[in-house]
Design goal:
Elements: E1 7-9, E2 15-17, H1 19-26, E3 32-38, E4 41-46, E5 52-58, H2 61-74, E6 77-84, E7 87-94, E8 97-103, H3 110-116, H4 122-131, H5 137-143, H6 149-168, E9 173-179, E10 192-193, H7 194-214, E11 221-224, H8 236-243, H9 251-258, H10 262-274, E12 278-281, H11 288-310, H12 315-329, H13 332-335, H14 347-355, H15 362-381, H16 387-403
Antiparallel strand pairs: 1-2, 3-4, 5-9, 6-7, 6-9, 7-8, 8-10, 11-12
C-alpha cells in the first residue's frame, strides 16, 4: 500500500490499509455496519451513532453557505461538520440559531483570538497554554485577572462567530450534518441568528476580496501621509486606526492594539487609503531591540570565557587574538575595533551598524556571525586553559550557544 491514507478492497472483499488509515480507524474502535456502497462512495455507521441527515463534498465556496441555509430555514437541530484538509470545524444548530462551535484549526483557539484582540500578550498566551490541563484556557485567563467573566463570554461568542466565518471559506473538502437528540451540546452555549451570520459572512467575503486588491497582506505597515487633506467623515474605527499608523506597526499589530480584529482593521485601512490618508510600506526587517537582546546573550557567553582565562593570566593574550580575528574576518564594521576588557562587544554599535545594511534577514546573519565570534573565543581559550578546564568550559559554552535561538 503506497498511499498511507489509502484503503484497498480486493475482489474477494478483503481490505488492506495504509499506515495512516490504520491509525485513523483505530480511533473509531467498535462495530460498524456498511449502509451504502455506491460507485466511488462507501458509508459506514456505528452502533448507537447519531443519524446522518445530510452529507456531501464541498465543491465550491458556495457549498457550505448553501448547506447552512438549508439547515437554518428547515429549523434542524444537530451538528454540521465542515472538513477542509486537516482542519475540522463543528457548528451546532437548533431551530435557526447557532448554539456553539468547535474547531481543530490553530487560529481558532481561544488563546489565539485573545492575542489577536490585544487582550493578552504572546508570552501570556504561551504561559497559560503550558498551565492549561485540568482547567480550560478561559478559566485560567479569568483567574490571572487578564479578562473578567463578562469579557470572557464576549470573546467566546466572538470565537463562535469566527469559526462560523471560517467554515464559509472552506472551498474544498466534505460536510456532514448529524441529527442531535435531546441532549445539550458541551462547551459554551450561545444563541446567534444564522441568517444574520450568513449575511455578515457574505459581506465579509465580498469586501475582503475587494480589500485584498489594495491590501494584499496584513503584514504591510500603513504610515500617515503628512501632506494628506483633512479626513472626511471617518467612523470611530477608522479614526482610531489612523492614530496608530506610524509606519512601524503592521495591520496585524494595529488590529491587536485597537482590539478591532483583522477584518475591521483591514476595512478601516482600505477607507484610509481611499482618502489618501495613509500609504502602505513593507514591514521593517530590522528591530534594534532584538539586535541588542541577541548581542547581550552572546556577550554573557564571551564574559564567561574571559573569566575562565583570567584565572590563568591569559586575558590579554585572548583579547588580542580575538581583536585580530575580528579585523581579519571582515566583521569589524559591525562588531567595532574589538572586544572590551570583559570580552564583550557594544550592542549599541552593532544595532547602529546593522541599521544601514540592506538585508532581508539581518538577524539571521548576525546570529551566524556571533556564533563564529564565540566559537573562535572558545578556541583561543584552549591555548591558555588546562585540558580539564578546557573540556568543562567547552561543554558549558556549547550548551549555552545551542540554547540561543532566534
Amino acid at each position: 500500500m503506497t498511499d498511507p491514507d489509502g484503503i484497498e478492497i480486493a475482489s474477494d472483499g478483503s481490505i488492506r490499509l495504509g499506515a495512516a488509515a490504520r491509525q485513523r480507524l483505530a480511533r473509531r474502535e467498535g462495530r460498524w455496519a456498511l449502509v451504502v456502497d455506491l460507485p466511488g462512495l462507501l458509508l459506514l455507521r456505528g452502533e448507537g451513532s447519531a443519524r446522518v441527515q445530510m452529507a456531501g463534498e464541498i465543491l465550491s465556496r458556495m457549498s457550505v453557505m448553501e448547506v447552512i441555509n438549508i439547515i437554518a430555514t428547515s429549523g434542524w437541530r444537530g451538528e454540521l461538520y465542515v472538513v477542509g484538509g486537516e482542519e475540522i470545524r463543528t457548528l451546532v444548530f437548533d431551530q435557526g440559531a447557532l448554539k456553539g462551535a468547535r474547531s481543530t484549526a490553530a487560529d481558532d483557539r481561544l488563546g489565539e483570538l485573545l492575542y489577536r484582540a490585544g487582550a493578552i500578550t504572546r508570552q501570556q498566551l504561551e504561559e497559560l497554554a503550558e498551565e492549561s490541563g485540568s482547567k480550560r484556557f478561559g478559566e485560567l485567563a479569568v483567574e490571572r485577572g487578564l479578562v473578567d467573566a463578562q469579557q470572557l463570554f464576549q470573546y467566546l461568542t466572538r470565537q463562535t462567530e469566527e469559526i462560523f466565518f471560517g467554515s464559509l471559506l472552506v472551498a474544498d473538502g466534505y460536510y456532514i450534518f448529524l441529527v442531535q437528540g435531546d441532549e445539550e451540546p458541551g462547551g459554551t452555549t450561545v444563541h446567534l441568528s444564522v441568517q444574520g451570520l450568513l449575511m455578515e459572512g457574505v459581506q465579509r467575503i465580498d469586501e475582503m476580496a475587494l480589500f485584498r486588491d489594495k491590501i494584499p497582506s496584513s503584514d504591510l505597515c500603513p504610515v500617515r501621509n503628512s501632506d494628506a487633506p483633512p479626513p472626511k467623515k471617518l467612523d470611530e474605527a477608522a479614526a482610531s486606526v489612523l492614530d496608530l499608523c506610524d509606519g512601524e506597526r503592521s495591520i496585524e499589530e494595529i488590529s491587536r492594539i485597537s482590539g478591532l480584529g483583522e477584518f475591521a482593521t483591514t476595512k478601516a485601512v482600505y477607507h484610509l487609503l481611499s482618502q489618501k490618508q495613509v500609504t502602505l510600506h513593507a514591514p521593517s526587517r530590522f528591530d534594534p531591540a532584538k539586535v541588542k537582546q541577541l548581542v547581550g546573550l552572546f556577550n554573557e557567553v564571551l564574559q564567561d570565557i574571559f573569566l575562565a582565562v583570567a584565572t590563568y593570566g591569559g586575558m590579554a593574550q585572548t583579547r588580542a587574538t580575538l581583536d585580530a580575528w575580528i579585523q581579519g574576518s571582515g566583521y569589524a564594521p559591525y562588531f567595532g575595533e574589538g572586544v572590551d576588557e570583559l570580552g564583550t562587544i557594544d550592542p549599541d554599535h552593532v544595532a547602529r551598524a546593522l541599521a544601514g545594511v540592506d538585508s532581508d534577514h539581518p538577524l539571521e546573519a548576525l546570529h551566524q556571525a556571533l556564533h563564529e565570534l564565540a566559537a573562535f573565543a572558545l578556541f583561543s581559550a584552549t591555548t591558555v586553559l588546562p585540558r580539564d578546564q578546557e573540556l568543562v568550559l567547552a561543554r558549558d559554552v556549547n550548551a549555552r550557544l545551542k540554547a540561543i535561538r532566534l
